Amino acid sequence: MKSWMITLLLASTLLSGCGNASAAKLRSENSALKAENARLRSASSPSLAATEERDEDSSDAVASAERLTRVGTLDIAVERITNSRVENNPRRYTPVETGYPQVKTWPAEYFRGEIKLRLTNEGSAAIDLTRQVLELTDGQGRTYTAETSDTFGKVIYAREILEPNETATANLYVIGKRRINLDRFALKFGPQFGAKGQIIAEAGATEYQ
Fold it and tell me: What is the pTM assigned to this prediction?
């Protein structure tokens, strides 16, 4: 009888220890996942150069952030430009391809650019970036926001609401069947809306040269 009770006690102790260890492990993994999620949300998108083979004459970089003409209440600066010939591989699609399913019917290779912008709200009212339209026209006069048969564009803002005096990044992705000229380009911003849906600034454009 004593032997049986001792065995049960040992088994109970072991199970309790395993349960505590498992719970501690789950808590640790959960904390790690939360930290990683926060890091990914605040980090900018990885450079295309890290995942794609760069075309020999398609590499553009901004040594330091270059400020553009202000549009409405937005102060705009270009932080990075990447421009590559890429393989049409669904495993390497960025947000621009996932938002444009027709790319799967494109040639085996096409061109993709990414422009990282820094936006600062210089106004007195918050800006709703979920309603902020941004359209790029490259140096050849081709537009990359509206869907066409051979071009497309998509912008990803780091946050939804940009409060006065706050700064956020935006990644503008563009793809095309032909080479994309990002040596110079124009950015056309739609009207800027406040957090309550009111228009706080009219549409406008700025140029990078």
Answer: 0.69
